[in-house]
Write a structure and sequence with these properties.
The complex is a heterodimer of chains A (312) and B (300). With 312 residues, chain A is of the alpha/beta class. Chain A has helices at 41-48, 70-74, 92-102, 107-120, 136-147, 166-181, 193-199, 217-225, 238-246, 269-281, 296-303; strands at residues 3-12, 15-25, 30-35, 56-61, 64-65, 77-80, 154-158, 185-189, 202-207, 210-216, 229-234, 251-257, 260-265, 286-291. A six-stranded mixed β-sheet of chain A has the order 6-7-8-3-9-10, sandwiched between helices. In chain A, strands 2-1-4-5 form a four-stranded antiparallel β-sheet. Chain B has 300 residues and is mainly α. Chain B has one domain (5-299). Helix content of chain B is 74%, strand content 0%. The longest helix of chain B is centred in the middle third of the chain and has 33 residues, at 172-204. The chains are: A alpha/beta (312), B mainly alpha (300).
Amino acid sequence: MMVLVENLTKRFKGTLAVDRLCMEIPEGEIYGFVGANGAGKTTTMRIIAGLLAPTSGRVLINGMDISKEPLKVKERIGYMPDFFGVYDDLKVSEYMAFFAGLQGIYGTKCRELTDSLLELVRLTEKKEAYVDTLSRGMKQRLCLARSLIHDPEFLILDEPASGLDPRARVEMKEILKELRSMGKTVLISSHILPELSELCTSIGIIDAGRLVASGSVADIAEKLAQSGLIKIKIAGNEENAVKILMEMPEIGEISSVAGVLEVKVNGGEDIYVRILKTLVANDIPVVSFHPEESSLEAVFMKLTEGGNGNEN
Amino acid sequence: MRINPVLQKDLKTKLRGWRAPVLISCYIILLAGVLLLYFSGSSMLNPYYVSGFNPRIAVNAYNLLIVFQFALLFIAVPAITATSISGERERQTLDLMLVTKTHPGKIIIGKIIISIAHTMLLLVSSLPVLGVVFFFGGIGIADIAKLLLFYIFTAFFVASSGVFFSTLFRRNITAIITNYIFLGILTFGPFILFLIRTYIMEATLNYSYNPSYADFLSILFPSPVFGFTSFYFNGGSDYYSSISNLWGSIATHIDSYIAQEKGILRFMKPWIANGMFGIIASILLIISSTAILNPIKRKK
Protein backbone atom coordinates (compact mmCIF):
# COMPACT_ATOMS: atom_id res chain seq x y z
CA MET A 1 0.00 0.00 0.00
CA MET A 2 1.51 3.35 -1.03
CA VAL A 3 -0.53 5.48 1.38
CA LEU A 4 -2.20 4.38 4.56
CA VAL A 5 -4.04 6.94 6.66
CA GLU A 6 -5.25 5.71 10.03
CA ASN A 7 -7.77 7.55 12.21
CA LEU A 8 -6.41 10.94 11.21
CA THR A 9 -7.80 13.75 13.33
CA LYS A 10 -6.89 17.42 13.21
CA ARG A 11 -8.33 20.02 15.52
CA PHE A 12 -7.68 23.78 15.26
CA LYS A 13 -8.58 25.65 18.45
CA GLY A 14 -11.75 23.66 19.02
CA THR A 15 -12.66 23.32 15.34
CA LEU A 16 -12.55 19.78 14.06
CA ALA A 17 -11.05 19.94 10.57
CA VAL A 18 -10.42 16.23 10.04
CA ASP A 19 -12.33 13.61 11.97
CA ARG A 20 -10.94 10.05 12.32
CA LEU A 21 -10.24 9.83 8.62
CA CYS A 22 -9.06 6.48 7.25
CA MET A 23 -7.81 6.08 3.70
CA GLU A 24 -5.85 3.59 1.64
CA ILE A 25 -4.25 4.33 -1.71
CA PRO A 26 -2.63 1.38 -3.50
CA GLU A 27 0.46 1.88 -5.67
CA GLY A 28 -0.22 3.26 -9.13
CA GLU A 29 -3.67 4.54 -8.18
CA ILE A 30 -4.98 7.98 -9.16
CA TYR A 31 -7.09 8.82 -6.15
CA GLY A 32 -9.55 11.69 -6.45
CA PHE A 33 -10.23 13.53 -3.24
CA VAL A 34 -13.59 15.25 -3.47
CA GLY A 35 -15.22 17.60 -1.02
CA ALA A 36 -16.79 21.01 -0.65
CA ASN A 37 -14.75 24.05 0.39
CA GLY A 38 -13.71 23.66 4.01
CA ALA A 39 -14.50 19.94 4.08
CA GLY A 40 -10.93 19.15 5.20
CA LYS A 41 -9.25 18.23 1.91
CA THR A 42 -6.33 20.64 2.12
CA THR A 43 -5.72 19.93 5.82
CA THR A 44 -5.64 16.19 5.12
CA MET A 45 -3.28 16.67 2.18
CA ARG A 46 -0.97 18.93 4.20
CA ILE A 47 -0.78 16.31 6.94
CA ILE A 48 -0.02 13.59 4.39
CA ALA A 49 2.67 15.82 2.85
CA GLY A 50 4.28 16.27 6.28
CA LEU A 51 3.50 19.97 6.49
CA LEU A 52 1.20 19.74 9.46
CA ALA A 53 1.19 17.58 12.56
CA PRO A 54 -2.05 15.68 13.17
CA THR A 55 -3.82 15.92 16.51
CA SER A 56 -4.02 12.12 16.47
CA GLY A 57 -3.75 9.26 14.02
CA ARG A 58 -0.91 8.48 11.65
CA VAL A 59 0.10 8.51 8.01
CA LEU A 60 2.26 5.80 6.47
CA ILE A 61 3.87 6.33 3.07
CA ASN A 62 5.26 3.10 1.68
CA GLY A 63 5.22 1.72 5.23
CA MET A 64 7.12 4.70 6.71
CA ASP A 65 5.55 6.89 9.35
CA ILE A 66 5.90 10.52 8.29
CA SER A 67 6.10 11.77 11.88
CA LYS A 68 9.02 9.43 12.60
CA GLU A 69 10.99 9.59 9.37
CA PRO A 70 9.92 12.91 7.80
CA LEU A 71 12.96 13.48 5.60
CA LYS A 72 12.96 9.93 4.19
CA VAL A 73 9.24 10.17 3.44
CA LYS A 74 9.66 13.58 1.80
CA GLU A 75 12.09 12.08 -0.70
CA ARG A 76 9.16 10.03 -1.96
CA ILE A 77 6.53 12.76 -2.01
CA GLY A 78 5.86 15.47 -4.55
CA TYR A 79 3.49 18.19 -3.34
CA MET A 80 1.69 20.80 -5.36
CA PRO A 81 -0.46 23.13 -3.24
CA ASP A 82 -3.50 25.04 -4.40
CA PHE A 83 -1.40 28.19 -4.85
CA PHE A 84 1.54 28.86 -7.16
CA GLY A 85 4.42 29.54 -4.78
CA VAL A 86 6.82 31.03 -7.29
CA TYR A 87 9.67 33.55 -7.15
CA ASP A 88 8.99 36.21 -9.72
CA ASP A 89 12.61 37.34 -9.87
CA LEU A 90 13.95 33.93 -10.86
CA LYS A 91 14.09 32.40 -14.31
CA VAL A 92 12.23 29.15 -14.94
CA SER A 93 15.48 27.14 -15.09
CA GLU A 94 16.75 28.81 -11.89
CA TYR A 95 13.48 28.09 -10.13
CA MET A 96 13.81 24.42 -11.02
CA ALA A 97 17.50 24.37 -10.01
CA PHE A 98 16.63 25.88 -6.63
CA PHE A 99 14.14 23.17 -5.78
CA ALA A 100 16.43 20.50 -7.24
CA GLY A 101 19.12 21.76 -4.85
CA LEU A 102 16.70 21.49 -1.94
CA GLN A 103 16.17 17.86 -2.97
CA GLY A 104 19.92 17.28 -3.18
CA ILE A 105 20.09 17.26 -6.98
CA TYR A 106 22.81 19.35 -8.61
CA GLY A 107 24.83 19.79 -11.77
CA THR A 108 24.25 17.74 -14.91
CA LYS A 109 21.53 15.61 -13.34
CA CYS A 110 19.65 18.76 -12.37
CA ARG A 111 19.91 20.19 -15.89
CA GLU A 112 18.79 16.93 -17.48
CA LEU A 113 15.84 16.59 -15.12
CA THR A 114 14.86 20.22 -15.65
CA ASP A 115 14.89 19.76 -19.43
CA SER A 116 12.80 16.59 -19.37
CA LEU A 117 10.28 17.99 -16.89
CA LEU A 118 9.89 21.27 -18.77
CA GLU A 119 9.24 19.18 -21.84
CA LEU A 120 6.64 17.15 -19.95
CA VAL A 121 4.80 20.30 -18.86
CA ARG A 122 5.34 21.98 -22.24
CA LEU A 123 7.46 24.84 -20.97
CA THR A 124 10.73 24.12 -22.79
CA GLU A 125 10.58 27.36 -24.75
CA LYS A 126 10.11 29.31 -21.50
CA LYS A 127 13.22 27.89 -19.84
CA GLU A 128 15.07 31.22 -19.75
CA ALA A 129 12.00 33.36 -19.15
CA TYR A 130 11.38 35.06 -15.80
CA VAL A 131 8.65 33.37 -13.79
CA ASP A 132 6.64 36.60 -13.55
CA THR A 133 6.21 36.63 -17.31
CA LEU A 134 4.38 33.27 -17.32
CA SER A 135 0.62 32.97 -17.57
CA ARG A 136 -1.43 31.44 -14.75
CA GLY A 137 -1.65 28.09 -16.52
CA MET A 138 2.09 28.08 -17.21
CA LYS A 139 2.86 28.88 -13.58
CA GLN A 140 0.62 26.00 -12.53
CA ARG A 141 2.46 23.67 -14.91
CA LEU A 142 5.81 24.94 -13.65
CA CYS A 143 4.70 24.11 -10.09
CA LEU A 144 3.82 20.62 -11.25
CA ALA A 145 7.27 20.25 -12.83
CA ARG A 146 8.81 21.52 -9.58
CA SER A 147 6.95 18.87 -7.58
CA LEU A 148 8.36 16.18 -9.89
CA ILE A 149 12.00 17.29 -9.79
CA HIS A 150 13.11 14.45 -7.48
CA ASP A 151 11.07 11.80 -9.31
CA PRO A 152 8.68 11.08 -6.41
CA GLU A 153 6.66 7.87 -6.24
CA PHE A 154 3.68 9.65 -4.75
CA LEU A 155 2.22 12.97 -5.86
CA ILE A 156 -0.14 15.15 -3.86
CA LEU A 157 -1.96 17.65 -6.09
CA ASP A 158 -4.25 20.07 -4.32
CA GLU A 159 -6.76 21.50 -6.79
CA PRO A 160 -4.34 21.54 -9.75
CA ALA A 161 -6.97 22.85 -12.15
CA SER A 162 -8.43 25.60 -9.97
CA GLY A 163 -8.53 29.04 -11.51
CA LEU A 164 -7.37 27.84 -14.92
CA ASP A 165 -9.12 28.69 -18.17
CA PRO A 166 -10.64 25.76 -20.14
CA ARG A 167 -7.61 25.42 -22.42
CA ALA A 168 -5.18 25.35 -19.48
CA ARG A 169 -7.40 22.78 -17.78
CA VAL A 170 -7.26 20.50 -20.77
CA GLU A 171 -3.48 20.85 -20.89
CA MET A 172 -3.23 20.05 -17.19
CA LYS A 173 -5.48 17.03 -17.66
CA GLU A 174 -3.26 15.74 -20.47
CA ILE A 175 -0.19 16.05 -18.26
CA LEU A 176 -1.93 14.18 -15.45
CA LYS A 177 -2.78 11.39 -17.89
CA GLU A 178 0.91 11.17 -18.74
CA LEU A 179 1.73 10.92 -15.06
CA ARG A 180 -0.74 8.07 -14.76
CA SER A 181 0.98 6.28 -17.62
CA MET A 182 4.31 6.79 -15.82
CA GLY A 183 2.94 4.71 -12.95
CA LYS A 184 2.90 7.47 -10.33
CA THR A 185 0.55 7.18 -7.39
CA VAL A 186 -1.44 10.40 -7.26
CA LEU A 187 -3.74 11.95 -4.69
CA ILE A 188 -5.63 14.74 -6.42
CA SER A 189 -8.31 17.03 -5.12
CA SER A 190 -10.66 19.05 -7.25
CA HIS A 191 -14.06 20.67 -7.46
CA ILE A 192 -14.27 19.86 -11.13
CA LEU A 193 -15.80 16.47 -10.56
CA PRO A 194 -16.46 15.25 -14.10
CA GLU A 195 -12.76 15.76 -14.85
CA LEU A 196 -11.84 13.68 -11.83
CA SER A 197 -14.19 10.87 -12.85
CA GLU A 198 -12.39 10.62 -16.19
CA LEU A 199 -8.96 10.75 -14.67
CA CYS A 200 -9.18 8.84 -11.39
CA THR A 201 -9.14 5.15 -10.75
CA SER A 202 -10.82 5.67 -7.37
CA ILE A 203 -12.27 8.46 -5.34
CA GLY A 204 -12.82 9.43 -1.75
CA ILE A 205 -15.51 11.87 -0.72
CA ILE A 206 -14.85 14.01 2.33
CA ASP A 207 -17.50 15.96 4.16
CA ALA A 208 -17.05 17.89 7.42
CA GLY A 209 -13.68 16.22 7.93
CA ARG A 210 -15.00 12.69 7.50
CA LEU A 211 -14.51 10.34 4.58
CA VAL A 212 -18.11 9.50 3.69
CA ALA A 213 -17.33 7.23 0.73
CA SER A 214 -14.30 5.66 -0.84
CA GLY A 215 -13.80 3.21 -3.67
CA SER A 216 -13.62 2.99 -7.43
CA VAL A 217 -15.65 5.53 -9.39
CA ALA A 218 -17.92 2.75 -10.74
CA ASP A 219 -18.48 1.22 -7.28
CA ILE A 220 -19.53 4.49 -5.74
CA ALA A 221 -21.76 5.39 -8.67
CA GLU A 222 -23.43 1.97 -8.46
CA LYS A 223 -23.88 2.24 -4.72
CA LEU A 224 -25.71 5.48 -5.22
CA ALA A 225 -27.75 4.15 -8.10
CA GLN A 226 -29.53 2.15 -5.41
CA SER A 227 -31.37 5.34 -4.63
CA GLY A 228 -31.81 6.67 -8.14
CA LEU A 229 -34.21 8.83 -10.10
CA ILE A 230 -36.30 7.73 -13.10
CA LYS A 231 -37.82 10.16 -15.56
CA ILE A 232 -40.96 8.64 -17.12
CA LYS A 233 -42.77 10.37 -19.97
CA ILE A 234 -46.35 9.20 -20.53
CA ALA A 235 -48.80 10.12 -23.24
CA GLY A 236 -51.83 10.33 -20.88
CA ASN A 237 -53.55 8.75 -17.91
CA GLU A 238 -51.08 10.45 -15.58
CA GLU A 239 -53.36 10.29 -12.55
CA ASN A 240 -53.69 6.52 -12.86
CA ALA A 241 -49.96 6.12 -13.39
CA VAL A 242 -49.16 8.03 -10.20
CA LYS A 243 -51.70 5.91 -8.29
CA ILE A 244 -50.08 2.66 -9.51
CA LEU A 245 -46.59 3.87 -8.70
CA MET A 246 -47.60 5.04 -5.20
CA GLU A 247 -48.74 1.52 -4.41
CA MET A 248 -45.24 0.15 -5.00
CA PRO A 249 -43.17 0.07 -1.74
CA GLU A 250 -39.83 0.91 -3.49
CA ILE A 251 -41.12 4.25 -4.76
CA GLY A 252 -40.19 7.38 -2.84
CA GLU A 253 -41.33 10.81 -3.99
CA ILE A 254 -43.12 11.45 -7.29
CA SER A 255 -43.26 14.82 -8.98
CA SER A 256 -44.57 15.92 -12.34
CA VAL A 257 -42.45 18.38 -14.36
CA ALA A 258 -43.78 19.40 -17.82
CA GLY A 259 -45.53 16.10 -18.49
CA VAL A 260 -42.59 14.05 -17.19
CA LEU A 261 -42.89 12.09 -13.97
CA GLU A 262 -39.76 12.22 -11.82
CA VAL A 263 -39.79 9.17 -9.60
CA LYS A 264 -37.34 8.61 -6.75
CA VAL A 265 -36.62 4.88 -6.38
CA ASN A 266 -34.98 2.94 -3.57
CA GLY A 267 -33.43 0.00 -5.36
CA GLY A 268 -31.38 -1.18 -8.28
CA GLU A 269 -32.01 -2.18 -11.87
CA ASP A 270 -34.38 -5.08 -11.01
CA ILE A 271 -36.78 -2.57 -9.47
CA TYR A 272 -36.60 -0.38 -12.61
CA VAL A 273 -37.65 -3.42 -14.70
CA ARG A 274 -40.58 -4.17 -12.39
CA ILE A 275 -41.80 -0.55 -12.49
CA LEU A 276 -41.81 -0.53 -16.29
CA LYS A 277 -43.56 -3.90 -16.47
CA THR A 278 -46.24 -2.79 -13.99
CA LEU A 279 -46.95 0.42 -15.90
CA VAL A 280 -47.22 -1.36 -19.25
CA ALA A 281 -49.35 -4.12 -17.73
CA ASN A 282 -51.77 -1.45 -16.49
CA ASP A 283 -52.10 0.13 -19.98
CA ILE A 284 -50.16 3.27 -19.10
CA PRO A 285 -48.92 4.76 -22.41
CA VAL A 286 -45.15 5.04 -21.60
CA VAL A 287 -43.36 7.16 -24.20
CA SER A 288 -39.95 7.08 -22.54
CA PHE A 289 -38.43 5.54 -19.44
CA HIS A 290 -35.13 7.10 -18.44
CA PRO A 291 -33.19 6.15 -15.27
CA GLU A 292 -30.80 9.03 -14.45
CA GLU A 293 -27.17 8.04 -14.53
CA SER A 294 -25.31 8.82 -11.32
CA SER A 295 -22.55 11.16 -12.38
CA LEU A 296 -19.73 11.81 -9.96
CA GLU A 297 -21.19 15.25 -9.46
CA ALA A 298 -24.54 13.74 -8.45
CA VAL A 299 -22.81 11.23 -6.19
CA PHE A 300 -20.93 14.03 -4.51
CA MET A 301 -24.08 16.10 -4.01
CA LYS A 302 -25.95 13.13 -2.55
CA LEU A 303 -23.18 12.06 -0.23
CA THR A 304 -22.54 15.50 1.12
CA GLU A 305 -26.21 16.40 1.45
CA GLY A 306 -26.69 18.39 4.65
CA GLY A 307 -22.93 18.44 5.18
CA ASN A 308 -21.59 21.48 6.88
CA GLY A 309 -17.85 21.67 6.37
CA ASN A 310 -15.67 23.81 8.51
CA GLU A 311 -13.23 26.23 6.98
CA ASN A 312 -9.66 25.10 7.20
CA MET B 1 31.36 21.57 -1.42
CA ARG B 2 27.75 22.38 -2.26
CA ILE B 3 26.46 25.86 -1.55
CA ASN B 4 23.32 25.93 0.55
CA PRO B 5 20.54 26.21 -2.11
CA VAL B 6 18.65 28.81 -0.04
CA LEU B 7 21.79 30.93 0.14
CA GLN B 8 22.47 30.47 -3.58
CA LYS B 9 18.95 31.47 -4.56
CA ASP B 10 18.87 34.51 -2.24
CA LEU B 11 22.31 35.66 -3.42
CA LYS B 12 21.05 35.49 -6.97
CA THR B 13 17.80 37.35 -6.34
CA LYS B 14 19.26 39.97 -4.01
CA LEU B 15 22.33 40.83 -6.07
CA ARG B 16 20.60 40.67 -9.44
CA GLY B 17 19.63 43.86 -11.22
CA TRP B 18 20.39 47.47 -10.37
CA ARG B 19 19.35 47.53 -6.72
CA ALA B 20 22.48 46.01 -5.15
CA PRO B 21 25.09 48.17 -6.95
CA VAL B 22 23.00 51.29 -6.36
CA LEU B 23 22.64 50.45 -2.66
CA ILE B 24 26.39 49.87 -2.27
CA SER B 25 27.23 53.06 -4.17
CA CYS B 26 24.80 55.12 -2.06
CA TYR B 27 26.24 53.66 1.11
CA ILE B 28 29.85 54.47 0.15
CA ILE B 29 28.90 57.97 -0.99
CA LEU B 30 27.09 58.52 2.30
CA LEU B 31 30.04 57.26 4.30
CA ALA B 32 32.49 59.39 2.30
CA GLY B 33 30.15 62.35 2.79
CA VAL B 34 30.13 61.83 6.55
CA LEU B 35 33.94 61.66 6.56
CA LEU B 36 34.28 64.76 4.43
CA LEU B 37 31.85 66.71 6.59
CA TYR B 38 33.70 65.61 9.69
CA PHE B 39 37.07 66.71 8.37
CA SER B 40 35.82 70.03 7.11
CA GLY B 41 33.65 70.55 10.22
CA SER B 42 36.56 69.84 12.56
CA SER B 43 38.81 72.27 10.77
CA MET B 44 36.19 74.95 10.86
CA LEU B 45 35.33 74.43 14.52
CA ASN B 46 38.84 74.06 15.82
CA PRO B 47 40.31 77.49 16.44
CA TYR B 48 43.90 76.24 16.76
CA TYR B 49 44.26 74.06 13.66
CA VAL B 50 42.45 75.93 10.96
CA SER B 51 44.91 75.02 8.28
CA GLY B 52 47.30 72.68 10.10
CA PHE B 53 47.48 68.91 10.39
CA ASN B 54 45.89 67.19 13.38
CA PRO B 55 46.21 63.35 13.56
CA ARG B 56 43.56 63.23 16.33
CA ILE B 57 40.94 64.25 13.82
CA ALA B 58 41.60 61.07 11.82
CA VAL B 59 41.22 58.83 14.85
CA ASN B 60 38.03 60.56 15.88
CA ALA B 61 36.76 60.33 12.32
CA TYR B 62 37.49 56.63 12.45
CA ASN B 63 35.50 56.36 15.69
CA LEU B 64 32.64 58.18 14.04
CA LEU B 65 32.69 55.92 10.98
CA ILE B 66 32.70 52.66 12.92
CA VAL B 67 29.79 53.90 15.05
CA PHE B 68 27.99 54.75 11.84
CA GLN B 69 28.65 51.25 10.48
CA PHE B 70 27.64 49.62 13.73
CA ALA B 71 24.36 51.52 13.65
CA LEU B 72 23.88 50.44 10.05
CA LEU B 73 24.36 46.82 11.08
CA PHE B 74 21.55 47.20 13.63
CA ILE B 75 19.26 48.89 11.16
CA ALA B 76 19.96 46.87 8.00
CA VAL B 77 20.33 43.30 9.28
CA PRO B 78 16.93 43.09 11.05
CA ALA B 79 15.26 44.59 7.97
CA ILE B 80 16.75 41.81 5.84
CA THR B 81 16.36 38.89 8.21
CA ALA B 82 13.07 39.67 9.91
CA THR B 83 11.35 39.14 6.58
CA SER B 84 13.36 36.10 5.54
CA ILE B 85 10.96 33.38 6.68
CA SER B 86 7.77 35.43 6.99
CA GLY B 87 8.49 36.71 3.46
CA GLU B 88 8.65 33.14 2.16
CA ARG B 89 5.40 32.49 4.00
CA GLU B 90 3.72 35.56 2.49
CA ARG B 91 4.98 34.53 -0.96
CA GLN B 92 3.60 31.04 -0.25
CA THR B 93 6.93 29.39 -0.96
CA LEU B 94 7.73 28.25 2.58
CA ASP B 95 5.63 25.08 2.33
CA LEU B 96 7.35 24.19 -0.93
CA MET B 97 10.72 24.39 0.81
CA LEU B 98 9.55 22.46 3.85
CA VAL B 99 8.13 19.63 1.77
CA THR B 100 11.61 18.87 0.41
CA LYS B 101 14.18 16.68 2.13
CA THR B 102 16.16 19.75 3.22
CA HIS B 103 16.16 20.02 7.00
CA PRO B 104 14.47 23.21 8.33
CA GLY B 105 17.73 24.03 10.14
CA LYS B 106 19.53 24.28 6.82
CA ILE B 107 16.92 26.74 5.56
CA ILE B 108 17.42 28.86 8.71
CA ILE B 109 21.24 28.79 8.35
CA GLY B 110 20.95 29.78 4.68
CA LYS B 111 18.82 32.78 5.61
CA ILE B 112 21.25 33.88 8.33
CA ILE B 113 24.32 33.56 6.11
CA ILE B 114 22.75 35.59 3.31
CA SER B 115 22.05 38.51 5.64
CA ILE B 116 25.57 38.36 7.09
CA ALA B 117 27.00 38.18 3.57
CA HIS B 118 24.89 41.15 2.53
CA THR B 119 26.08 43.21 5.50
CA MET B 120 29.69 42.12 5.02
CA LEU B 121 29.49 43.19 1.40
CA LEU B 122 28.53 46.70 2.55
CA LEU B 123 31.21 46.74 5.23
CA VAL B 124 34.01 45.40 3.02
CA SER B 125 33.09 47.75 0.18
CA SER B 126 33.40 50.62 2.68
CA LEU B 127 36.96 49.63 3.66
CA PRO B 128 38.56 52.11 1.20
CA VAL B 129 36.70 54.93 2.93
CA LEU B 130 37.73 53.57 6.32
CA GLY B 131 41.28 53.25 4.97
CA VAL B 132 41.56 57.03 4.69
CA VAL B 133 42.48 57.11 8.37
CA PHE B 134 45.58 55.01 7.64
CA PHE B 135 47.11 58.08 6.02
CA PHE B 136 47.21 59.64 9.47
CA GLY B 137 48.39 56.56 11.41
CA GLY B 138 47.35 55.39 14.86
CA ILE B 139 45.11 52.54 13.73
CA GLY B 140 46.54 49.24 12.49
CA ILE B 141 45.28 46.42 10.28
CA ALA B 142 44.91 44.19 13.37
CA ASP B 143 42.49 46.73 14.86
CA ILE B 144 40.37 46.69 11.71
CA ALA B 145 40.47 42.86 11.58
CA LYS B 146 39.35 42.66 15.22
CA LEU B 147 36.57 45.11 14.51
CA LEU B 148 35.40 43.12 11.48
CA LEU B 149 35.37 39.97 13.61
CA PHE B 150 33.17 41.72 16.15
CA TYR B 151 30.90 42.95 13.37
CA ILE B 152 30.55 39.34 12.14
CA PHE B 153 29.68 38.12 15.67
CA THR B 154 27.15 40.91 16.05
CA ALA B 155 25.69 40.43 12.57
CA PHE B 156 25.36 36.71 13.32
CA PHE B 157 23.46 37.46 16.52
CA VAL B 158 21.26 40.17 15.00
CA ALA B 159 20.53 37.94 11.98
CA SER B 160 19.67 34.97 14.20
CA SER B 161 17.24 37.09 16.19
CA GLY B 162 15.72 38.42 12.95
CA VAL B 163 15.19 34.94 11.56
CA PHE B 164 13.78 33.80 14.91
CA PHE B 165 11.10 36.51 14.91
CA SER B 166 10.48 35.93 11.23
CA THR B 167 9.79 32.28 12.03
CA LEU B 168 7.67 33.14 15.03
CA PHE B 169 5.38 35.65 13.34
CA ARG B 170 3.45 35.15 10.14
CA ARG B 171 3.51 38.79 9.02
CA ASN B 172 6.60 40.69 7.88
CA ILE B 173 5.72 43.92 9.67
CA THR B 174 5.11 42.20 13.04
CA ALA B 175 8.40 40.32 12.75
CA ILE B 176 10.37 43.51 11.91
CA ILE B 177 8.87 45.63 14.70
CA THR B 178 9.29 42.88 17.32
CA ASN B 179 12.88 42.33 16.25
CA TYR B 180 13.73 46.03 16.59
CA ILE B 181 12.07 46.15 20.03
CA PHE B 182 13.99 43.04 21.12
CA LEU B 183 17.31 44.49 19.95
CA GLY B 184 16.51 47.86 21.52
CA ILE B 185 15.82 46.24 24.89
CA LEU B 186 18.96 44.11 24.65
CA THR B 187 21.14 47.08 23.68
CA PHE B 188 19.91 49.69 26.13
CA GLY B 189 18.17 47.54 28.77
CA PRO B 190 21.40 46.43 30.51
CA PHE B 191 22.54 50.08 30.82
CA ILE B 192 19.22 51.07 32.38
CA LEU B 193 19.48 48.08 34.72
CA PHE B 194 23.01 49.10 35.60
CA LEU B 195 21.93 52.65 36.38
CA ILE B 196 19.06 51.40 38.56
CA ARG B 197 21.43 49.05 40.36
CA THR B 198 23.99 51.85 40.86
CA TYR B 199 21.27 54.15 42.19
CA ILE B 200 20.07 51.50 44.67
CA MET B 201 23.62 50.67 45.79
CA GLU B 202 24.49 54.33 46.26
CA ALA B 203 21.34 54.87 48.29
CA THR B 204 22.11 51.79 50.39
CA LEU B 205 25.82 52.45 50.89
CA ASN B 206 25.41 56.19 51.33
CA TYR B 207 27.17 57.18 48.09
CA SER B 208 30.31 55.13 48.78
CA TYR B 209 29.52 52.56 46.07
CA ASN B 210 32.44 51.90 43.76
CA PRO B 211 31.56 49.25 41.16
CA SER B 212 34.24 46.84 39.90
CA TYR B 213 34.64 45.65 36.30
CA ALA B 214 32.89 42.42 37.34
CA ASP B 215 29.82 44.52 38.26
CA PHE B 216 29.84 46.13 34.82
CA LEU B 217 30.42 42.83 33.06
CA SER B 218 27.75 40.86 34.92
CA ILE B 219 24.99 43.26 33.83
CA LEU B 220 26.19 44.84 30.61
CA PHE B 221 27.53 41.76 28.78
CA PRO B 222 24.41 41.20 26.58
CA SER B 223 24.54 44.75 25.20
CA PRO B 224 26.33 45.07 21.85
CA VAL B 225 27.10 48.71 22.76
CA PHE B 226 29.04 47.45 25.76
CA GLY B 227 31.01 45.10 23.48
CA PHE B 228 31.59 47.95 21.07
CA THR B 229 33.32 50.07 23.75
CA SER B 230 36.42 47.90 23.12
CA PHE B 231 36.84 49.55 19.76
CA TYR B 232 36.97 53.14 20.84
CA PHE B 233 40.31 54.67 19.94
CA ASN B 234 41.30 57.38 22.27
CA GLY B 235 42.79 59.95 20.02
CA GLY B 236 42.91 62.49 22.79
CA SER B 237 40.30 65.17 23.28
CA ASP B 238 39.96 67.80 20.66
CA TYR B 239 37.36 70.50 20.50
CA TYR B 240 34.93 68.56 18.34
CA SER B 241 35.10 65.16 20.07
CA SER B 242 34.71 66.56 23.56
CA ILE B 243 31.34 68.03 22.78
CA SER B 244 29.84 64.95 21.15
CA ASN B 245 31.60 61.78 22.24
CA LEU B 246 29.39 60.08 24.82
CA TRP B 247 30.50 56.68 23.57
CA GLY B 248 34.12 57.72 24.04
CA SER B 249 33.55 58.71 27.64
CA ILE B 250 31.79 55.40 28.41
CA ALA B 251 34.60 53.46 26.69
CA THR B 252 37.31 55.36 28.58
CA HIS B 253 35.42 54.80 31.83
CA ILE B 254 35.16 51.03 31.26
CA ASP B 255 38.80 50.85 30.14
CA SER B 256 39.90 52.37 33.44
CA TYR B 257 37.93 49.68 35.33
CA ILE B 258 39.51 46.90 33.25
CA ALA B 259 42.94 48.33 34.05
CA GLN B 260 42.21 47.86 37.77
CA GLU B 261 41.46 44.16 37.26
CA LYS B 262 44.24 41.69 38.10
CA GLY B 263 42.48 38.33 37.61
CA ILE B 264 41.17 36.52 34.57
CA LEU B 265 38.52 39.21 34.00
CA ARG B 266 41.33 41.45 32.75
CA PHE B 267 41.27 39.35 29.56
CA MET B 268 37.52 39.21 29.31
CA LYS B 269 37.26 42.40 27.29
CA PRO B 270 33.75 43.75 26.60
CA TRP B 271 33.87 42.65 22.93
CA ILE B 272 34.92 39.09 23.88
CA ALA B 273 32.22 38.79 26.56
CA ASN B 274 29.56 40.20 24.26
CA GLY B 275 30.81 38.13 21.31
CA MET B 276 30.56 34.94 23.39
CA PHE B 277 27.10 35.88 24.54
CA GLY B 278 26.15 36.59 20.91
CA ILE B 279 27.35 33.18 19.71
CA ILE B 280 25.59 31.24 22.48
CA ALA B 281 22.37 33.26 22.08
CA SER B 282 22.53 32.80 18.28
CA ILE B 283 22.83 29.02 18.61
CA LEU B 284 19.82 28.96 20.94
CA LEU B 285 17.84 31.19 18.58
CA ILE B 286 18.70 28.95 15.60
CA ILE B 287 17.65 25.82 17.50
CA SER B 288 14.36 27.51 18.52
CA SER B 289 13.71 28.75 14.97
CA THR B 290 14.32 25.26 13.58
CA ALA B 291 11.92 23.74 16.10
CA ILE B 292 9.23 26.31 15.24
CA LEU B 293 9.73 25.80 11.52
CA ASN B 294 9.69 22.01 11.70
CA PRO B 295 6.28 21.13 10.20
CA ILE B 296 5.91 17.95 12.16
CA LYS B 297 6.19 19.91 15.39
CA ARG B 298 4.19 22.87 14.11
CA LYS B 299 0.58 22.80 15.14
CA LYS B 300 -0.81 25.34 12.68
